[in-house]
Design a protein that fits this description.
The chain is 44% helix and 15% strand. It is an alpha/beta fold and 355 residues long. Strand 3, helix 8 and strand 4 form a beta-alpha-beta unit. Helix 1 crosses helix 2, helix 6 packs across helix 13 and helix 9 runs parallel beside helix 10. The radius of gyration is 24 Å and the shape is elongated. The model has no long low-confidence stretch (mean pLDDT 87).
Length: 355
């Protein structure tokens, strides 16, 4: 097995320079670091993790702690395969000389206690905090103890933290502007669950885009408990009955799974998509959801959530080395794609008038 001395001899560099290059120190020229890394791969050099930890104080380990129940819920909701995301993230980190530790929080254990335990073990350089909420105890704890972490998703409103997310403003504004251009004004906005950071920003964007178009947002058109099927159905029935005001002519959904649930209610009401009601959704690349023959090709914004793995690995490593310094390198808002399907059309004036 090759050693640091073998690399230094091959390149004519001191072992100290080779060691600092492989450990990511900033005082090594990028070209020199690249030469050292290439030689290490060529010679089959494998770092001694224990020795490396003693020298640098760094383990090159990034930790992701997941709630088992949350993983199950996202799977059942048709979200991207969690195992796919973890696998890709592990590969991305490995290619950069880091390892991923994936740990699952037990049902009788608090999230903060799990983070405390991992920190006490002293083997983690930084955390990835997924599925953030507006009042997230994990984020509050890690900020308090000043331990490096990156948010996978949007950080809470009012905070300035490293994060990797899909552009939630674009997710809302692109399809909403398309509906407004077609003449829609009474647009139902379905999100969930309430309290999540992405739901908060998407609702704010919905109100802002409507306001910029000279339309006051009707709060009754915002459904934040869309994940609750019975509440969703009851709310939609009330809106389309006309009892709550002007009948909607379009429905925007935060996920394809929500679009499927809304589509079922529309079909039960005898409404056709898009002749009577336009339907759009955000598609985060999860398992294909069957919308049924009554729903045509869905108009949607698209981004495969597992594609965040590369940027997430880069930001997590940067945070582990430099600490929390939010900026262009540590804050990534990734653009999505607007796919125009056949599920939107001009509003049916007979449905959108006053009750």
């Amino acid at each position: 097995m090759a050693s640091l001395k073998d690399i230094s001899k091959k390149l004519g560099l001191s072992t100290a320079t080779v060691s600092r290059a492989l450990n990511g120190f900033d005082d090594v020229h990028p070209k020199t670091r690249a030469r050292v890394e290439d030689a290490a791969r060529e010679l089959g050099y494998v770092a001694n993790r224990a020795a490396k930890l003693l020298v640098s104080g760094k383990s090159n380990i990034i930790c992701l702690i997941a709630d088992l129940e949350l993983v199950r819920q996202t799977r059942d909701a048709g979200s991207p395969d969690f195992l796919e995301l973890i696998s890709r993230l592990s590969c991305e980190l490995s290619e950069r000389g880091f390892d991923l530790v994936f740990s699952v929080k037990s049902p009788n254990e608090t999230a903060v206690a799990k983070y405390q335990d991992m920190i006490k073990r002293g083997i983690v350089d930084a955390f990835i905090v997924g599925a953030p909420t507006q009042d997230d105890p994990r984020i509050a704890f890690l900020e308090e103890v000043e331990f490096p972490f990156v948010v996978h998703g949007l950080p809470p409103v009012g905070t300035d933290l490293p994060f990797v997310s899909v552009d939630n403003v674009q997710i809302v504004s692109d399809p909403l502007l398309a509906l407004l251009d077609l003449g829609h004004e009474h647009i139902v906005f379905v999100q969930g669950p309430p309290g999540t950071t992405h739901a908060v920003q998407r609702c704010d964007t919905y109100r802002q885009v409507l306001g910029d178009a000279g339309i006051a947002a009707d709060e009754r058109m915002i459904i934040l408990d869309g994940d609750n099927e019975s509440k969703l159905k009851s709310h939609l029935l009330g809106l389309f009955s006309g009892r709550l005001g002007p009948r909607p002519t379009a429905v925007m959904c935060g996920s394809v799974a929500l679009a499927q649930a809304c589509g079922k209610v529309l079909v039960e009401l005898g409404l056709k998509v898009p002749d009577d009601v336009s339907l759009v959704a955000n598609d985060d690349g999860g398992d294909p959801v069957q919308l049924g023959p009554e729903i045509p090709d869905l108009c949607r914004t698209y981004f495969d959530w597992s594609d965040t793995s590369g940027p997430l690995a880069e930001v997590a490593i940067d945070v582990s080395k430099k600490g929390m310094k939010p900026g262009p390198v540590q804050c990534r808002n990734l653009a999505c794609e607007m796919i125009f399907g056949r599920s939107i059309a001009r509003p049916n004036q007979g449905l959108g008038g006053e009750a």
